Predict the 3D structure of the following.
Amino acid sequence: MSSSTALRDLQRDIENKANDLGKIQKGKYSEESSDKEEELDLLEEDANVYKMIGPVLVKQDLAEANANVRKRIEYISAELKRLDAILQDMEEKQISKRDAIVKLQQRVQSIQAGNAKA
């Protein structure tokens, strides 16, 4: 295999890995924070609480509203943990792709340096 063929193969490999890295970066998830519904804790037990169902406000028990909010917060927290794990995996893949690109670029430079001396 000639050095020019090896160089072309390495450059093609670098382009492919750079494209893979770009795809991974575009697929990043953005982390969003969830706020606790602390307002319900400020209410007295006999306070009126309403839940919006479509265009209608329906009266709801305060304990039931608190339970619903707690369940939603648990769901959102679990979803954030899941997305964080996905994000961590994607970041590890990015690092791996970057390392592969750097190694390939170093090989290209060494081949080009060898050709320049010849």
In short: The two ends are 17 Å apart (CA to CA).
